[in-house]
Amino acid sequence: MGSVRWAFPCAAWRPRREEWLLAARLVQPEEKDRIGQFVFARDAKAALAGRLLIRKLIAEKLHIPWNEICLQRTSKGKPFLANNMSSTCSNYNFNVSHQGDYAVLAAEPELQVGIDIMKTSLPGSSSIPNFFRIMKRQFTEAEWGVIKSMNNEWMQLDMFYRHWALKESFLKAIGVGIGFNLQRIEFNVSPLQLEIGKVYQETKLLLDGDEEEWTFEETRLDDNHHVAVALGKQEEYRQNHSHNFPLNLIASTCNSQEGPIISIRYIPWSLINHGLCY
Ligand SMILES: CC(C)(COP(=O)(O)OP(=O)(O)OC[C@H]1O[C@@H](n2cnc3c(N)ncnc32)[C@H](O)[C@@H]1OP(=O)(O)O)[C@@H](O)C(=O)NCCC(=O)NCCS
């Protein structure tokens, strides 16, 4: 089955009316209704692309016919596959993120996974220093030290969003939503500069001050989009596979499982659309 990393450039996707109607018919009715309520077309497109990526993944990798795929959400909103699966597929884990110009997906046959994409962009209504003041509690002193050590305000903002993507990827892997004390998790990023298109796995996570055996895969998709993929521990995931992950599991000390070094594959609309039955 293998690991999957996909990126779909949803901002560049300009569906014709028939395409949009087809795409909307391909997701479950409750999702179609949810997507229909977005005020901005760009948000609706991004959310729809996220759902289509998940369904493409399940159809292709788990060979479940498109119209039999049943996705549900945990109480915190994380989508999971509700179909009865054989034991070989029962650990299959996926997650999507949509922000900026892309929808991205990561999937793993055995590891707990969370993905986040962040686009570096100027804050809407305040200066960068003021924006940082408002966001002070999201990061630890050490993280702010790294963010503010960058040469200019734009690079500081870029480093801010890199940290943000890392934190979100972890929160999304463990499936918790808003409310987690972000001061408990601290990232020690490395290297400081990321080249576009390369995959890095050097960044470390400290949870309550102790280094965690999670792997963080970081990729710069282009000049201003950071993608972070959090990869959990295989044995822990196997033993505790459920759709809600109690936080005390994170701190246990199983052996680590290195994530694979793979790059993001870009998915054009024709490929999402290809071969879907509805
Ligand atoms: C959903 C959440 C987990 C992430 O939201 P986000 O970063 O704005 O959005 P993303 O585009 O990265 O991800 C959204 C997708 O994640 C998935 N998702 C939703 N809830 C999730 C959860 N609890 N865990 C994992 N994935 C989740 C969904 O597929 C969702 O897309 P959809 O609702 O259109 O189907 C958000 O509710 C949240 O709680 N974030 C933490 C907030 C925070 O404190 N961040 C500070 C970081 S420094």
From TrEMBL:
Gene3D superfamilies: 4'-phosphopantetheinyl transferase domain. The gene is AASDHPPT. InterPro entries: 4-PPantetheinyl_Trfase_dom, 4-PPantetheinyl_Trfase_dom_sf, AASDHPPT_N, P-Pant_transferase_sf. This is L-aminoadipate-semialdehyde dehydrogenase-phosphopantetheinyl transferase. It catalyses: apo-[ACP] + acetyl-CoA = acetyl-[ACP] + adenosine 3',5'-bisphosphate + H(+); apo-[ACP] + CoA = holo-[ACP] + adenosine 3',5'-bisphosphate + H(+). GO terms for molecular function: transferase activity. Residues 12-109 form the 4'-phosphopantetheinyl transferase N-terminal domain. Pfam families: AASDHPPT_N, ACPS. Keywords: Transferase. Residues 112-229 form the 4'-phosphopantetheinyl transferase domain. It comes from Apteryx mantelli (North Island brown kiwi). Its EC number is 2.7.8.7. Belongs to the P-Pant transferase superfamily. AcpS family. It is an enzyme of class 2 (transferase).
